[in-house]
Amino acid sequence: MELTWHGHSTWSVTVGETDLLVDPFFDNPKTALEPSAIDKPDYVLLTHGHADHIAHAGEFAGATLVATPELVSFCEEEFGFEDAVGGMGMNLGGTVECDDAYVTMTRADHTNGIMTENDASAGMPAGFVISDAPPAESDEESTAVYNAGDTSLMSEMRDVIGDHLAPDAAIVPIGDHFTMGPKQAAIAVDWLDVDHAFPQHYDTFPPIEQDPEDFSSAVEATGSDADVHLLEADEPFEL
């Protein structure tokens, strides 16, 4: 599995021959790439409907959309998406097969209004566990990464996601103000009992400016054995 961070909460994930793009938003200071520079993905995964997560979704409308039914409906009308998993999207707790990848939608504690003229609802905010095997069949040979989306710290990370979905790696927001900050994100990593951790959703706007080294130190302070990876934008990482 290959992970590439494009700044903020935008990730390219490759599982086998399948390319997935999560929360496309390239107007961030970490990347110099334009959306047109990204190879067209097979799937676009949207955690929620805030502008800093869907701003460039329309650039990839030829892909299959993975999102809640409410957000799928919005993206069909707004961006011209014609294909969604299941024909209508998915919802919390579900797992869908996306060619070589399996995507499980998890809960996130956040808001999810779309700031349009009619203030549309995008349903529930979400996170995703992306794996190369179905969750029930995961073993030491399989690989799974949990992208928490925008969220606060929640006990579901310990009791459900960590315990039952058992990801190997976690991508967590550390920006504070709108999501968890470094210390709560570090607790999340510890609860999830992962081997690898990656920060996201920081340094994009003044309210979420953070030193990611603080996150790394906070993870170590919890006693977690996770390796924290502070990635440079647009550089692939083999998980």
UniProtKB/TrEMBL annotation:
Segments forming domain Metallo-beta-lactamase: 7-201
MF-aspect GO terms: hydrolase activity
Keywords per UniProt: Hydrolase
InterPro entries: Metallo-B-lactamas, RibonucZ/Hydroxyglut_hydro, UPF0173, UPF0173_UPF0282_UlaG_hydrolase
Entry keyword Hydrolase: yes
The keyword Transferase is assigned to this record: no
Pfam families referenced in this protein's UniProt entry, alphabetically: Lactamase_B_2 (PF12706)
Annotated family: Belongs to the UPF0173 family.
NCBIfam families according to UniProt: PRK00685.1 (NF001911)
Name of this chain's protein: UPF0173 metal-dependent hydrolase EA472_07970
Organism for this UniProt entry: Natrarchaeobius chitinivorans
Upper classification of the organism: Archaea, Methanobacteriati, Methanobacteriota, Stenosarchaea group, Halobacteria
